[in-house]
Amino acid sequence: MTTPTLPDARTHASDPHMKIAEDALRPHLTEPGWRFVTPTPAHAGAARLSLRAHPDPNAAQVTEALPGEPLDLLWENAGGWAYVRTAHDHYLGWARADGLHARPWQPDLTVTARRAHAYAGPKISQPIRAELACGARLQRDPGETVTEDHRRWVPVVLPGGTDAWVQEVTLAPLQCDLLTFALGFLDTPYVWGGRSAWGLDCSGLTQLVYGAFGRPLPRDADQQLQALTPVTDAQPGDLAFFPGHVGLMLGDRRMLHANATHMRVTVETLGEGEYGTRLQLELSGFGRWTP
Fold this sequence. Notes:
The chain is mainly beta. Helices cover 12% and strands 37% of the residues. It has 4 helices and 25 strands. A hairpin with a 4-residue loop joins strand 1 (14-15) and strand 2.
């Protein structure tokens, strides 16, 4: 029997051992015995939600869902794990079921600060209720904004329903350009599968920076390469691609990237130094956003 050719397994859900798949794959899986499911809307809780390659706490993290981000819940197992897909880039992974919520959620606020906290009350000495990051989604509570020592505090509802307060500045529209925003992530720790300023991998950095300026990108470097227009000569803001790696060009040969060589976000000059020379030799091309 010929094995069916399926769409990208990173974004289309099926399990040949359990013979379960999402309903969208029904035309591809015509042999008997398959059970098809319709995704259920859900969202990540008040903490960053780790999505793993397998339902095992020791499995590799493949990506993260930021607080309040919408998800597709596909199925759960008996061990308390849920197979989910991030709504913004359609990326699949296993997450602890107690870290997500299937209740109705209509967030109307987006965190723009690279890192931020939600507090129990409108005062910086209050207990911290959640760690937030750029892209996290919150609901505006109907209460009034409170001014405290020249700080403006906004009442919010965290994913999961807890009341909290955030400073208005963490929700303010970005007042800088893409490269300035990107350089603010310099020295952020490298984390495999990370998508926030608490920890980033290479494609997580480029996806986050582009996304903050209305340029949605897929999750992985090879997907991002396919999504952009190939160019020969890089301009500031273009992406540079290598086998399994991606960076953001700052101009000429300087590149910002999250890397496991330095275990942080650094700036390299292509062709200079041991690492820069190696990167230049491995460079496979550049990609440019074209609306």
